[in-house]
Structures are given as C-alpha cells and as structure tokens.
Amino acid sequence: SQQGEEDPQALSIQEGENATMNCSYKTSINNLQWYRQNSGRGLVHLILIRSNEREKHSGRLRVTLDTSKKSSSLLITASRAADTASYFCATIIQGAQKLVFGQGTRLTINP
Amino acid sequence: GAVVSQHPSRVICKSGTSVKIECRSLDFQATTMFWYRQFPKQSLMLMATSNEGSKATYEQGVEKDKFLINHASLTLSTLTVTSAHPEDSSFYICSARLNSVSPETQYFGPGTRLLVL
User: Got the DSSP string for A31-64?
Assistant: First the structure.
C-alpha cells in the first residue's frame, strides 16, 4: 500500500519559476526521501531529511519536513527544462526496512 | 555513487513464457535487494525484499510462485516472471541496499520494461 500522497499530481510551469511539490504520509517515520525519475528511467536520489530535521538544502532544492502534520515539501528554485521529470517522496516506516513511495508529481518545465 | 544495473533493459515476450530479469550491484555488495513494479503514470509498488542466501519476502498480493526471486550472491538478484500474461506488462525496477548500517540508502537500477503480447 502507498504510504504517501503527493500533490499536485501534475505541475506545469515556465522555466525560471519555482516549483513546489507536497507529500503527506500516514505513519511515523525515521526519515523521508525525495527521488526524481525521468520518463522511462530509473530513480535518482535527491535528498534525505531525517525526522529530527525541519529543513534541508541541496543546490536548488529545498526540502521541509513537518512531523506534526506528517508532511513534507520539495521546492525547486529557478527551474530548468532539465528538471522535467516525476518526483516521488519515499519513507521508511519505523520498524520496517523498506521504502514506500508516494504517488508522485509529474513536473513539466516549459521553455 | 554505487551503481546498480539491470538486464535486459527491455523485453518483449509471448504470453505463457517466462522472463528472467537480472539485477546486479556493480561496485558493492548488497545483502538486500528490492524489486518494484511500476505501471504507466503510477508510482513504484514494492513487490518483494530479497536477502542474500534466504527466501524473499513478498508484499501482500504478490504471488511468490509467479514472481520467482533468487538472490544467490551478494551482487546478483534475479526476478523471473513465470507464465507471463499481458497484465504483467510493466516497468520492473530493482534497488540494492548498501549495508545494514545505513538502511535508508538504496541505489536503483535503470529498470526493465516488460511487454507481454
């Protein structure tokens, strides 16, 4: 079963704009991760944020985590056409050793 | 970073035949590998967890006799789709966990697209 729900399901913006994707989850977690998947390809790990962290940055990526609301957001600043992909959040449920993925957001950056 | 490969990248087969997909960790030993299935425009669904030298653990709803998993070495896991049917057509992705010390770190293969005619 899916652990996370993401919104929006699809997002289309102009190059240079910022893109924000949200993820909500149901159970307690040790950490939350974000992945990118280009069409028909494997997954690329973007960033991991632990349950005791509230915000994390990596280049143009900014991730926040609110454990009280069981939600996370991924912000991509100054978007580029190459950022076009699907983005998934994933969690490892406490006590388990497996990643469970959200539904994903399909991001399209228009040149 | 660590590299995981899958072979083949794409396979087309006739209904009723069996297809084997290989997942290899190229530059590290993976005690645990995972198999996921992804239908078009959907998320990844975990099928099974494969531990080297032991039986795989299947997720609820995944038929273990249909999706045979073998993890005979620390660098290779195979998924065999037996008696494939058109509804098995999907994108199959494996991942490998580096070690138990860092369980959250998984490296994903590029995926195998299966089309059953």
Answer: EEEEEEE-TTS-EEEEEEEETT-SEEEETTEEEE
The answer to whether the CB atoms of B111 and A41 lie below 8 A apart is yes
**Inter-chain CB proximity A104 and B108 less than 8 Å:** no
Whether the Cβ atoms of residue A89 and residue A6 lie closer than 8 Å to each other: yes
Chain B interface, mutation test: which of A41, A43, A87, A93, most B Cβ atoms within 10 Å? A43
Chain B interface includes A99 (CB < 8 A): yes
Q: Is A56 on the interface with B (CB under 8 A)?
A: no
Q: Can you give the C-alpha Rg of chain B in angstroms?
A: 13
Residue B4 CA neighbour count, 13 Å, CB half: 30
Tokens of B22: 């290989």
Q: Which of B103, B104, B110 has its CB closest to that of A41? A: B110
Rg value, chain A, Cα: 13
What is the rounded distance in angstroms from the CA atom of residue B24 to the CA atom of residue B66?
21
CB A20 within 8 A of CB A75: yes
pLDDT, tens digit, 9 for 90 and up, residues B76-105: 999 999 999 999 999 999 999 876 555 577
* DSSP per-residue codes, B10-27: EEEE-TT--EEEEEEESS
Interchain pair A97, B103: CB under 8 A: yes
Q: Does the pLDDT of residue B61 top 50, yes or no?
A: yes
